[in-house]
Prior knowledge:
The chain is mainly β.
Amino acid sequence: MLAAVIAACSGVDEPGELGLLPQESGEPAAASRLAQIRVVVQPPGEYGGDEPALEVAAVFAQYRGYDEAAARTRLDLPRPPAERLRAGHCVPSDQLLAGDEPVSKDTVSKDSSGARELILLDAGNLSLGLGDAAIDVPLALLPDLVPTISGVTYDYLSDSLPAGAWPPGEPAPSELVIRVDGEGDELPGFTLRPRLPEPALLSGAIDRDRDELRLEWRPDGREPLILRLVSLIGGEPVGEELTCVARDDGSFVADLDELHALGLDGGPGTALRASATRSDRTVFDAGEFVGAEAVVEVRTVTVIGG
């Protein structure tokens, strides 16, 4: 068993001074591009709670006048926890959801310049194939809240997997099929077949004698495993949710007092919901979008105590 070293804010890599790029006189800043397709799958039979069984989100963005960190913050695409948190450390999840570059009132006022813009492109139809199921991912028009940000996003959420996607009792599908019709030379159509990570098969126990949380799973070892912990009362979350990064070696042990110090509720009558997420990242090029990424995550969940 690997004893986890629990850290508070010091365990997170501090973002640099990232944000708006200085405007140059004369010509407008050159356009940059950023694209991500993210798919999260929860195997059938897992404890549902308030998490969707299938989530698909995609953006194809063209931006100017921002650096990449600022663009990612505005697109809600922060760097993954494994890049911001050292293995064996935990922090409140809100610290990781904040993104890489803070947005202040001063920053927003500067964004009104016509030299800065962020446009999310319509890439045509986007569909997902999982097992024998085919899912069309709908487009959503961005609300007209900030004059420099406009366009569309792709979003799909479902509380259950579509029929045929992953029949209960059947082996896990080995891959997904992602098809994007595209729109012209800037973003032509493409098909991806990213690997679907193996479910971690998470289990856990609380050792009251040692005041420890012990989690175990079937190891894979390819990439760090992302663990999320939250207490439940009557099935409802209470206290802080914590995110931990663990080596995918099959076990994680944490001191309960240190978890409680980070905000995990440990009051009487609480249960603990723990989830383990494995991810696979595929980098691809499509037209003028170079270095785009498809991120596929498989989440397994267990509830301890209560």
